[in-house]
Amino acid sequence: MRELLRPSRLAPGARVAVVAPSGPVPEERVQAGLDVLRGWDLDPVVAPHVLDRHGEFGYLAGTDADRAADLQAAWCDPSVDAVLCARGGYGAQRMVDLLDWEAMRAAGPKVFVGFSDVTVLHQAFATRLGLVTLYGPAAAGVDFIKNARAQEHLRATLFTPESVRTVTSGGTALVPGRARGITLGGCLSLLASDLGTPHALAGARGGLLLIEDVGEQAYRIDRMLTQLLRTGWLDGVAAVALGSWDRCGPYEALRPVLVDRIGGLSVPVVEEFGFGHCAGALTIPFGATAELDADAGTLTLDRPALR
User: Fold this and answer.
1) Which of 116, 169, 189, 244 is catalytic?
2) Three-state SS string across 236-250, please?
3) What is the pTM of this model?
4) Radius of gyration of the chain (CA)
5) Which of 11, 106, 43, 1 shows the shortest CA–CA distance to 307?
6) How many angstroms separate the first and last alpha carbons of the chain?
7) How many angstroms from the chain centroid is the CA of residue 269?
8) Are 254 and 280 in contact (CB under 8 A)?
9) Is the pLDDT reported for residue 99 higher than 90?
10) Phi and psi dihedrals of 126, rounded to 5?
């Protein structure tokens, strides 16, 4: 693991593009998200196919080619300072191989924000562009539209990243201790399904792994963690932060699975860290050098997430 290139922070008046690389988005939620962004004195633009729905597969926001074209066009537009994903869902894996990574690298660094299914793109941005990205609320997500904490933490990260250099979660130690490393992670099911693909990270060695998921039963989470363990992907990980497990059954039933699968790594582990699919989700930079203190429930970046 190595520290990645930090994009520039945003300033008032910055143009931000909203794209939908995965699932479809209701127009009213897109408009509500745009209103929030305009309230931050940003200039949001919506990619052409954000409101599309695939003709045959209704769980996709338009065709793979159109979703990829939207993301690539936004990234390569020199007037755009940041690209925000409208939502997660499913579909990023279908379009990630259609992106022209050489053209996107030539376009230079900028801010990229999204979570959940967008985990696939976070990995690709790390391996193909060497860029710090933000695992944070979706621009048309309910949490972003309605939750002040989620809004304010993302806003601070974008505009005044030095003010949130320490992320304080309120989480508690599952395994006590502190460790340093490079942040990485995202949605567990996507990390597991992305194993061995051309754009995935080769492993978590030297990393501070932050994982969460939604709508997965305990045995499925067991299976995913076991897959990461068996492939050696978790070998050498420095520490683990566990985020939200929304609709994954009672946490008291899931917690023993996490202890059994993660606790054996003999590294610091903090639970209920407050990012992912939860109310007031915190924004987490991936690709940054940091220290995770499981006892204090904090993640402290060596430098602000954005320049």
Assistant:
1) 116
2) CCCEEEEEEEECCCC
3) 0.98
4) 18
5) 11
6) 20
7) 19
8) no
9) yes
10) -70, -50
